[in-house]
Amino acid sequence: MSEPDVGAYRRPDNLSELLTLLDRRPTSVLAGGTDLVVMRADGMVDRTQDIVDIKDVSDLRGISLDADGTLTIGAATSLQELAKTPVIPPNAITDGASLVGGWQTRARGTIGGNICRASPAADTLPGVLAADAQLELASTTGTRLVPGHAFFTGPGRTVRKPNELLTRIIVPASLGASAYLRFTYRLAMDLAVVGVAAHLDIKNGRCVAARVALSAAAATPVLAPDAADALVGTELDEPSIEAAAQLVLNTATPIDDGRGSRAHRRTVLPVLAKRAIGIALERAREGHRR
Ligand SMILES: Cc1cc2nc3c(=O)[nH]c(=O)nc-3n(C[C@H](O)[C@H](O)[C@H](O)COP(=O)(O)OP(=O)(O)OC[C@H]3O[C@@H](n4cnc5c(N)ncnc54)[C@H](O)[C@@H]3O)c2cc1C
After folding, report:
1. Which of 9, 66, 225, 272 is close enough to 70 for a disulfide, judged by CB 3.0 to 4.6 Å?
2. SS3 content of the chain, % helix, strand, coil (to 5)
3. Residue 256 CB coordination number (10 Å)
4. pLDDT by residue (tens digit) across 177-214?
């Protein structure tokens, strides 16, 4: 009998069975399928691999806020649920979720899929880095936490091992607010030419901590530490924000590709950074905490 040329499809309803299946043989995780189906059709994913569909594992979905302010997002939570959540005010992660594709893509696509696909231009990733989120990876041998900024190793590549599942995104409590903006040539259904997320912690009118993260500006989403450091200690007045925004260029190493030129990306990045910091500041002043 000849070998089948496509792998088996399985849809467990509990995490333990799912992890056992992932451990057994090379298997593709299927969440919303908005990337995976295209990648399999294009030959980017080996079609002989089994597919394990995670949609029926309810532990992987949902958004919850602990009493200490820690936010937990299940990896299989849809981007639409995240974009519309009443659990937290608008922030860089929900801004990113609300910009992905059209509503059909957001209803199907998940934050875990957006993260594990690891596109340098993906819209939720700068928010994940700017929030200092931890990514929980589970396997049959246990779980480990990886900081968002250490998760991505290249375009489409992460530190996740083949038998590991991204289960949760854990976001620490915040003293401040955040925002994400991207630049696209069209207003809808386009990928970011560049994107910037800013997170500001503010105490007594002064910035006490900040993180700025960029998409489509390097081979992975990246933090821009010089820009963030320049904000800390300031009252977030216009000249301080302007100066910090310019410093994103110390980190940005964008390329020329079909979506934009390196030169244009470097022109747009400080402008977006200034606006993203401005929105985060406005949100913080309105009392948003995220
Ligand atoms: C029309 C269209 C427009 C789009 N526009 C945008 C856009 O504007 N911005 C943007 O960022 N993206 C965009 N995308 C890309 C896509 O929708 C997102 O990346 C989506 O979030 C992927 O999630 P998913 O659940 O569909 O993942 P899937 O396609 O199911 O999986 C994607 C990858 O992640 C892996 N994976 C998924 N979940 C897990 C998990 N929990 N643990 C381990 N591995 C996992 C899969 O094995 C696969 O390799 C668009 C896609 C389409 C089709």
Report:
1. 66
2. 35, 25, 40
3. 11
4. 999 999 999 877 789 999 999 999 999 999 999 999 99
